[in-house]
Design a protein that fits this description.
Layout lengths: L3 E6 L2 H23 L2 E5 L6 H7 L2 H4 L7 E5 L1 E3 L9 H8 L23 H19 L11 E4 L24 E6 L4 E6 L1 H4 L4 E6 L5 H8 L19 E7 L16
The structure holds 6-phosphogluconic acid (6PG).
The site of 6-phosphogluconic acid has 15 residues, from strand 4.
Length: about 260
């Protein structure tokens, strides 16, 4: 695929500024084109600074929140008011500060993944139905998000697509539940078919703890795709990597083309 951008930013704050600009541009363009902007937020700690920037007054004037539909690319098996909930992170740092209609907030029922596999499967299926309803996806197609935000763990996972888990092999569904043995927990996650159907996927990756894996993800010695994050390749969309200097510390900069 040709539409890849790799941008090395000074630090986590610079990542969030770059991401906020791209988020607002994508929202403007999608809203002008389709009357709405469908975006899936990433989990973990990295996006918090982005959410805080989008909550600032200057962002308010640049985003028509009435047209924005917020989703999440994965969720933990916790209730929405739990500090570990990806919804909770966005709710505290963004949602409570913006004039977005309640009906435009589409959270994953992570609490259902706590009780049983069947309940978790139901939560995943219901979430995919909600995505299809809001994005008005034809029955035989995969939903196409305007923008999906992702992070990456030091093990190369993204969303809740962890190495060695069954979710990596999903080819038909857009949202599944998955047991993550090493964390002894269930998750609900987007799958590669859904991720790779997006118009734009944007990774936000910061911290020295990611540097070795990021080198292997972006510059694999033998070209092998051994990490889940390497399998995110939108078939007809943009792929943006926003990484900070600490995470980029092992990259061969001369071999990255183009660094912008
Ligand atoms: C999750 C995330 C996960 C996250 C990475 C990076 O639910 O944990 O979706 O994929 O993006 O683990 O997390 P940090 O930003 O905290 O490093």
């Amino acid at each position: 695929m040709s539409n890849i951008e790799i941008k090395i930013c000074a630090d986590a704050d610079a990542i969030s500024r770059e991401a906020a600009t791209r988020f607002m541009d994508a929202a403007r363009d999608a809203t002008a084109r389709n009357g709405k902007f469908s975006v899936a937020l990433s989990g973990g700690s990295t996006p918090r600074k982005l959410f805080e920037k989008l909550a600032l007054p200057e962002a308010q004037s640049r985003v028509d929140w009435n047209a924005v539909h917020l989703f999440w690319s994965d969720e933990r098996a916790v209730p929405p008011d739990d500090k570990d909930s990806n919804f909770h992170t966005a709710h505290e740092s963004l949602i409570t500060h913006i004039p977005i209609p309640e009906a435009n907030i589409h959270r994953i029922a992570g609490e259902q993944a706590q009780t049983s596999d069947a309940d978790a499967e139901q939560a995943a299926a219901e979430y995919e139905s909600e995505i299809r309803r809001v994005l008005q996806t034809p029955h035989d197609d995969m939903p196409r998000f305007d923008l999906i935000l992702l992070g990456m763990g030091a093990d190369g996972h993204t969303a809740s697509l962890f190495p060695g888990t069954t979710a990596l092999d999903e080819t038909a569904r857009g949202v599944v539940t998955v047991w993550v043995e090493k964390m002894n927990t269930r998750r609900v996650t987007f799958t590669f078919p859904l991720l790779n159907h997006a118009a734009h996927v944007m990774f936000l990756i910061g911290g020295a703890d990611k540097s070795h894996t990021l080198r292997e993800v972006l510059q694999p010695e033998n070209g092998a795709a051994t990490y889940p994050s390497q399998r995110v390749k939108p078939t007809n969309g943009k792929l943006t990597w926003l990484i900070d200097e600490a995470a980029a510390s092992e990259l061969n900069r001369d071999a990255l083309s183009p660094i912008k």
